[in-house]
Amino acid sequence: MKKECIAMLLAGGQGSRLYVLTGEMAKPAVAFGGKYRIIDFPLSNCTNSGIDTVGVLTQYRPLELNSYIGSGVPWDLDNSTGGVHILPPYMGSKGGTWYKGTANAIYQNMGFIDLYDPDYVVVLSGDHIYKMDYSRMVERHKAAGAACTISVMEVPWEEASRFGIMSVDENDLITEFAEKPKEPKSNLASMGIYVFSWQTLRKYLTEDEADPNSENDFGKNVIPAMLGNGEVMAAYRFSGYWKDVGTLESLWDANMDMLSPESGLDLLDESWPIYARSVNAPPAFLGARSRVCHSAFNRGSNIEGVVENSVLSPQVSIGEGARVSYSVLLPGVVVEPGAVVEYAILGENCRIGRNCRVGGTPENTAPAPWGLTVLAPGCVLEEGQTVAPGIMLDRDGKEVSRK
Amino acid sequence: MKGMHGIIFSYEKRNDLRELGEIRSASSIPFGGRYRAVDFSLSNLVNAGVTDVGVVLHGHYQSLLDHLGTGKDWDLSRKRGGLKILPPFAYKQKWGETAFRGKMEALAGVRSYLDTIRQDYVVLLEGDLVVNLPLAEIFETHIQSGADITVVCGNDSFATENGTYFELDHDGWVTDVLYHLHNPRGYRGLEAYIISTQLLKDLVDECFVHDQFSWRRDVLQARKDQLRLHAYVWNGFAAQIRSVQEYYDRSMQLLNPDIRAELFCQERPIRAKGADKSSAYIGPNGACVNSLVADGSYIEGKVENSILFPGVRVEEGAVIRNCVLFKETVIRRNAELAYIIADKNVEVLPDRTLMGHSSYPIVLAKGSVV
After folding, report:
1. Nearest CB to A283 within list B34, B72, B276
2. Most-buried pick from A35, B72, B302, B333 (CB within 10 A)?
C-alpha cells in the first residue's frame, strides 16, 4: 500500500551516557516527565503530524521498549495499513549483522520501506524531547525540491561547537556541514531530524553500504556524501523547545523544564497532545500531612511527606516525614518515612529506607564537588544509609563511576 | 462452554441523581477521580476471565457509548465475543416512550441475543454498582452450592435508593426477598446474580408470556420456593450510585486508605478509559491535602478533603473543601467552594462562594458557569 510519507525512528542506541538508567533498557524507553517515556515524543509527533506508519529500529536491550510500544494503541498507531512496527536486526540467507550505524539500520530495512513505496522518509531519533509538526517540514522539503531536509535550530554561539553545524545560503539551503566544529561558521545546529526523498536516499544508502571505509552513519557519511554531490539540501528552521536528553544532567534539566511552562515545554497544551501508555491505577492520593509544591505527580502515587520542585512518575510512594526536593523519581519508587532525597534521579522501583539521606544541595556540598545522585532501577537502600551528592549506585547498591 | 457471560444493565431506573443523572445513565457517572461507574462492573467481569459482555441500554446512553467505545480499554474488543452493545431491538413498546419496567422486560427485549451466549452461566450486574468483587470465587461458590441463582449481597442493610434486601438462613439460603422498605433489614442486595444460561432463558420466556417484567418481584420473590436462591455475602466496600447523597458519601469514603486498598486492589485492577493528560501539578503557592488528584490537574490554590478528576484547574487564592470536581472544571481566583459536586466543564468565576453541606451537597450541572 503506497504512503506518501513514513517515519523511521532510530531507537537502537544504548544511551551509555545515561549510565545505570539504561543498564537494562534502551534510552528511548527511559521514563520522562512523570508519565512519559522519551519515545512518546517522536511517536506522538508522528501521529499528530498525520504520519501513520512508523518503523522503530531497535537493537540494544529491546524488551522494555517492545512491550511498551506493543501494538501502538496509545499513539493511535495500530492501523491495518501501516501502524508502528518494531524492526530488529535479522538474519538472511547470506548471514546478517547488527546495525552497524544509523545509515546501515535504515539500509537493512529497505525492504520494509519499499512495502509502502513512500515518496518521503522522515528519519528520527529516539532521544529528544520536543513537539514538532513533521508535515510542515515535509512541506518545506517539497517546496525546496530537496533531496534531503534537515531540521535546524539556532543555538547560542558559545555552544555551537557541541553540535553538528549547518551553514546556509540566503534561501536556507545548506552549503556546508561541520560536525562539532572548533570554530563554527554558523549557529544553526542539526536536531537529528531528517526528511529524505526515498529514491534518492535509497541510492545513497546502497553506495554507502558498498564503501568498506564508511561508518554507515548519517551525520558522518551519508549527509556529507549528498552535500558533496551537490544534492539540494534544505534547512528547516525550528523554534521552540528541543532538548537532547542523552546525559543525566540534561535528562534532569528537561524534567525540571516541564515544571515551568516558561521553559517552552508545555505539556498541558491539548492541541498537540503527547500520548503515553499508562498503568491502571487510581488517582494520586495526597495525605493529610503531605506538602507538595511546584511538583508534578501521577496516578497510583501515595504522598504523605514533603515534595518540592520534583517530578514524580506513577506509583511512587513518599512516606510521612520524608522529603524529596529537586529530584526525578521514576515509576514505582518508594521513599520510606523520614528519608531525605535531594538533587537525585531514582530509577524504577528504587526503595529508599527509613531515614536515608540521598544526594544534597550544591550549597551544602561545597567545597566538595557536587553532582546529581543517581540510583539504578531496583536499587534498595537499607535504613539510615547515606549516598553523597554526585554518587551513582547500580542495582546492587555498588558505586559506579562515570567514565 | 463452561464459564460466565456478563450482562450489565444500564437503563434508567428510579433514582435521585438530580443534575448528575439528567444527562447520563447512572452507569456512566464519573466516580473515584478517573472512573465511570460501569468500569467497576466491566473490570469485575474481565478480572474473572469473562470474555463476552453484553450491555443492555435504554435511554440517555450517548455518554455511555462514548465511554465504552469498542471495549478495547477492557480488552473486550474481540473477534469473537467481546463487548456487545444491546439496545432494545426486540422491544414491543413504542420506542422511547417508557424505560424498561424491569430486568425481565429488558432481557425479553434482547431475547435473540440470549440465544447467542456461548457460556453455560450468566452474571447479571447493574452498571451503577461500584465494587471490586472476586467474581471467579463467587462463581466457584455458585457451582459448589448447587444453587439455581446466587445473589450477591453486601454485609449491611444500608438504605440505598430503590434497594433490594435478602433475609438468609444460617447456611446462606435466601428465605425472603424484600424491597420498598422504610427501614431496610437483612442483607443489601448488590443486584449481582449468577444463573445458568438455560434457566435464565426459560425464566425470560415464562415471564414474557405472563406479562411479568420484574426480576425481583416475578422471579426472586414469586419463585423463591421453587428456585434455590443462595447468597454470597461480600464484606467489603460496595456502593450503589442512586442518589446525590449516596454519590457524595461514597466518594468521600475513598479518602480512607483501607477502602481504596480494597476497591483498587492490585490483584483485580479496575480498568478505565485512558485519558491523555500530562502529570498533575501543584504550583509554588498551591496546597493540597487529604485528596485524590487525577492526571492533568493544575492546582495553584488550596484543596482539602476533595476528589479532583483529570484536568481540573484551581487558580490562585481559590479554596476547595470537601468537593468532588469532575473533568476540566475550572475554579477561578479566590473562589471558595465547600460540599460541591461540579459536573464536567463547570467554571466558577473569581471571588464566588458556594457552600453546600455534607447532608446536602450541591450539584453544579455540566458546563454551567457560576
Report:
1. B34
2. A35
Q: What is the ipTM of this complex?
A: 0.90
A286:B269 CB<8 A: no
Q: What is the pTM of this model?
A: 0.92
Q: Determine which helix (DSSP H) or strand (DSSP E) holds A225, and give its type and residue range.
A: helix A223-228
- A23-77: pLDDT as tens digits: 888 899 999 999 999 999 999 999 999 999 999 999 888 888 999 999 999 999 9
| Cβ neighbours of residue B358 closer than 8 Å, sequence gap 6 or more | B248, B322, B339
Measured in angstroms, the CA of B169 and the nearest CA of chain A are apart by 38
Cβ-based interface (< 8 Å): residues of A facing B: 33-35, 73-74, 258-259, 267-268, 273-276, 278, 280-299, 302, 311-312
Q: What are the beta bridge partners of residue B179?
A: B164
pLDDT band at A345 (very low <50, low <70, confident <90, very high): very high
- Nearest-CA distance from A310 to chain B in Å? 10
Give me the residue label for grid cell 549483522: A97
Q: CA-CA distance, A391 to B3, in Å (whole number)?
A: 55
Closest partner residue to B291 among A33, A73, A286, by Cβ? A286
Q: Is the CB of residue B257 less than 8 Å away from at least one CB of chain A?
A: yes
Mutation pick from B279, B288, B298 vs chain A, by most beta carbons of A within 10 Å, is: B279
Question: Which of A268, A293, A302 lies closest to B286 in CB terms?
Answer: A293
For B83, the enclosing helix (H) or strand (E) is strand B82-86
Q: Per the CB < 8 Å rule, is B283 touching A294?
A: yes
Q: Which DSSP category does A317 fall into?
A: E
Contact B114, B170 (CB under 8 A): no
Contact (CB, 8 A) for A242 and A368: no
Q: Does B345 touch chain A (CB under 8 A)?
A: no
Coil, helix or strand at residue B39: helix
Q: Chains A, B: CB contacts under 8 A, how many?
A: 104
* Cα–Cα distance, B88 to B109 (Å, whole number): 5
How far, in Å, CA of B131 to CA of B40, rounded? 6
Q: Which residues neighbour A52 within 8 Å (Cβ) at sequence distance 6 or greater?
A: A3, A46, A76, A77, A79, A81, A82, A83
What are the phi and psi torsion angles at B285 (to 5°)? Answer: -105, 5
